[in-house]
Amino acid sequence: MFNAFEFCIPTKGVKAPAGAEWLHEIKFDGYRLRVERNGDRVRLITRSGYDWTKRFPWIVEAALKNRQKHFVIDGQAVILGVDGYSDFDALHSGKHNEEVQLCAFDVLAMDGDDLRDLPLSMRKANLARLLARRPDGIFMSDFEQGEIGPDLFRKVCEFGFEGLVSKRRDRPYRGGRQKY
Q1: Residues 6+ positions from 158 with CB-CB distance below 8 Å
Q2: Given pLDDT bands bounded at 50, 70 and 90, which one contains residue 1?
Q3: What is the pLDDT of residues 3-18, one digit of tens each?
Q4: b/e sequence 54-73, b meaning 16+ C-beta within 10 Å
Q5: Closest to 180 in 3D by CA, of 131, 119, 138, 99
């Protein structure tokens, strides 16, 4: 059912756009994952196509506790430090795999419906509903809308974060490298 999925890959830029049509997310430093739940089965698939279901049990447990039985979430596997920021060294070491959570930023399918053709703003609303009253292990990525993009980008650079991802709120989800 979900095999026709390809990750959307952002294009690297040196500035952030401004305008009401843009959503901006701080990029967490982690591993890109697709979480697929089909009934009682959950799979965690990497950007390279590897199955990491056994590697990150907390994400699997959280997906299984969700009231929805069928969904596909796009996100980033992260370990959050005490400061609330992602700790890539802890993640990469593999010594803390039971602490890895999913920072979810998009939902691509839900209840058997392919949502990729919906505008991002609608997919974000569906993701918020899917993760409402969520168990720990999967959380929704915060985002800001509109003119704040350039100021937020400056702060992201100032604090040394991984980056900022800016997306058009009216666009569908498309696999492969995208330039918005």
Answers
A1: none
A2: very low
A3: 478 888 888 888 888 8
A4: ebbebbbebbeebeeeebbb
A5: 119
Q: What is the mean pLDDT of residues 173-180?
A: 76
Model pTM score: 0.90
Place of tokens 């009934």: 39
Stretch 98-113: mean pLDDT, rounded? 95
Token digits for 166?
């800016």
The one-character DSSP state at 59 is H
Read off the pLDDT of residues 153-173 as tens digits, 9 standing for 90 and up. Answer: 888 888 878 888 989 999 999
Residue 55 corresponds to which tokens in the numbers above? 């590697």
What DSSP state is assigned to residue 147?
Answer: G
**Domains parsed from the chain with CATH numbers:** 8-178 (3.30.470.30)
Please state, as a whole number, how many other Cβ atoms lie within 10 Å of the Cβ of residue 74: 21
Backbone phi and psi for residue 112, each to the nearest 5 degrees, phi listed first: 85, -5
**Whole-number Å distance between alpha carbons of 57 and 107:** 20
Whole-number pLDDT of residue 178: 66
Q: What is the pLDDT of residue 180?
A: 56
User: What distance, in Å, lies between the first and last C-alpha atoms of the chain?
Assistant: 28
**DSSP 8-state class, residue 26:** E
Spatial CB neighbours of 157, under 8 Å, sequence gap ≥ 6: none
